[in-house]
Amino acid sequence: xPDRPRxxxxxxxxxxxxxxxxxxxxxxPALVGLSxxxxxxALAAAAAFEGSRAGVRIGAVVVDHGMQEGSxxxxxxxxxxxxxxxxxxxxxxxxxxxxxxxxxAAARTARYAAFAEAMRETGAARVLLGHTxxxxxxxxxxxxxxxxxxxxxxxxxxxxxxxxxxxxxxxRAETVAACADQGxxxxxxxxxxxxxxxxxxxxxxALPALEAAIGPGVAEALARTADQVQEDAEALDALAAELAPxxxxxxxxxxxxxxxxxxxxxxxxxxxxxxxxxxxxxGRTLSRAQTLAVARLVFxxxxxxxxxxxxxxxxxxxxRLEFTGA
Length: 326
Prior knowledge:
The protein is of the alpha/beta class.
């Protein structure tokens, strides 16, 4: 470990956030998802300090997406920083970014696959991620702007096994300050300055404009909105999960839900029951538009045909919604 730095407010805030999150590990080993940027580097430093004090083994996994010139060097420097902080083990994973949804979505898929592989290899139970309150505010604002529904507006969850976001209540400025106060040199992703990315435009243009128009505290207000929506969503999810076993019926090649019993519930619960049926039976996640298309077979039925989803067909027959593999 390097010489102990002066305990500044920013360093104290990051350490306190990690200390509060450590009980969720239950003493099991964990990994920090480290990019080398200020958020994840501040998290790594706090996790190394608090993990050592608590007797919890914490390592790091660095993912090189190979999408920028010099990315291998960036990954190696992040790994060296993790080792210098005392994290162990430290893994570097080179991934191939390809697949649907654009480069950002493909990179995220590859990154989380690398995290899962690293957990299996090391026996880690959790990966700690460096998302901050600013990231949460941007996520909520993106969801609002795209009309993505409550799941998007609920934003990121602090505790979303196997992922844990200890810094979700801290501002980005605090992680930058924590790195500076500890003599750590973070990598600043040049893509964060490219305004063709929606998040960058939100960060540099939209949020400052909202602050100017409404007043300070917009990011905090958006994060509070996420917390409130999460509470409501969790209650509705629990209600749907309680109802599902009593409603689900076997159907040839799939599962069925009785229409009358579905219609007796509010739409928010019906939507969750539909998504649960598809996820549990076919392992697929429905978008809001797909969920609403199925829900119309319950609430707006006028003899129309079924709904074709990726790998699943849903029809209304004999007073039931029948979900079968397509």
